[in-house]
Every structure is written in structure tokens, then in C-alpha cells.
Amino acid sequence: MEEDSFQRDPAAPGVELELIRADNPGPMTLQGTNTYVLRDGEQSWVVDPGPLDVPHLTAVIRACGPRPMGVLVTHRHDDHTAGAGTLRRQLQNRTGCEVRLWAADPRAVAGAQTPPSELISENGIVGHVIHLPGHTADSVGLLVEGGRMLTGDTLLGDGSSTVISPPDGSLTEHLQSLAVMRALATDGRISSLHPGHGSVAESPLEALEAIESMIAHREERIDQVRQARAAGALSMDRLLRAVYGEALDPGLRGAAEDSLRAVLDHISRTR
């Protein structure tokens, strides 16, 4: 088969993208987990099934249409993966189609396989799977036909910053992944950002601004930690007070500690 044989048929309709938000809001999930259904004619794919919640999975199944092809999880966390196995079985039972289940680390989701580099329909390429480690080592995104970038938790909506928990998470790799996304946006290949939690960045300019803002936030945090340590804040308690202040919500302390450990790990790697 020739190299360009999977290019999209210019006469084919575009890939549809539907957001179905799970009802699992919280400090880490914001308004809830964003599940995306891609449709190309009768064929469909699901990205991040979300929690094992019957009303949510029922809505996702209804959105898939007659020919579900695959389920892709962007990373290992339960708020994205818990419903994956049930969704796959229900789609197969309902339609009789063979539905693939993909995860960059197949050990993270029972029955999963390593994803292909591209999702392909009868009309050609639907999207490109891009490795974006940092939030977790197995994080991926999907650049959908037309420039819509599904980011998983690599970049959240509404200016929120994703938690990075070493050793699975790495701030060094996260910054590298953000740089990849910035290059794609600067090159005009990203038209909008569709995060795993939070609101969509609807335009190319909003997408680039969101990426640049997160890079600036991470660099500012690194500088804060460097300055705090230079001033003598060497214990975790003192670093937390220096960086986050005295009014840190106790419910967020664990996430804040993880983020500071990620910064310290990054500093030790990049001296």
C-alpha cells in the first residue's frame, strides 16, 4: 500500500467531535472528566471513557452510532479509564463490531493494546496519536483531523494546572511535551484544545495562549522553588509555606507536595 493511501478523501465529510462530560466533579477533575466521541460517517472512536458510571457510559454508547471502532485512553488514571472495559464490552454486544481498546501502557487497562500512531477510517486519517509524557509516563494526546487537539491531562482547561506526581510523573518531560504542543500550535497545526477536564480553547490563538500560559506558570513555579531554597526553605513544610502560603487548603496539600517534588526533581536533573 502506498504511503499516502490513507490521506483523507477530500469529498468525505469531516470528522465530528462530541464532548460528553462525566458527572464526577471535584478538585482534581474540575467539572468532570471529558469523554470525546469521534465520528467519521458510521464509524466512531471514544477517547477517555471516564468513570464506571452507568448514565455516563449510556450517553457515550448512544453517541457512538452503528460502527464503533476503538476506545483510546490518554493515560492510566481511573477517572479516565475505569469505564473502559465495560464500555468496550457493551459496544461489542450492542453492535457486533470488534472494538479495540488502546493504552500507551497496556498494563494500565485490562485487555488494552498499544495504540497505533494513527486512527484510520474508510475515509482516511481520523487523528494522530502523540506521546505526551509528563503528567504520567504513559500520557498521549490525539491530534484530530482539522487541528483539534485532545490533550488528556497534559493540559487542562480554564487555566488549571495538572498535578505531576513523581516518579510516574515528570516535570522535565511535561515541559518537553508542552514544547511539542507549542511547536504544533505555532506551526498552525492546532486549531483548538480539548482537555481531559475543563473548557475547550476554541480558536488557534486561544490554544497557543493556553499553552504559553502553562509553560510560563511552570517556569515561574521553578523560579519560586529555587528562590525559596536559596532563602533557606529546605524542608517540605517550609517550601509549602513559601510557595503556596499559609492558607493552603488541607485537601490540596498532597497535590501541592507532589508538585513541589516534581519541581525539585526537575531542578536536580537540569542543574
TrEMBL record:
GO molecular function ontology, one term from the record: hydrolase activity
Pfam families, per database record: Lactamase_B
Top-rank lineage group of the source organism: Bacteria
InterPro entries with a match to the protein in the record: Metallo-B-lactamas (IPR001279), RibonucZ/Hydroxyglut_hydro (IPR036866), Sec-metab_biosynth-thioest (IPR050662), WH-like_DNA-bd_sf (IPR036388)
Alphabetic keyword roster: Hydrolase
Domain Metallo-beta-lactamase, first and last residues per copy: 32-197
Name of this chain's protein: MBL fold metallo-hydrolase
Organism: Brachybacterium endophyticum
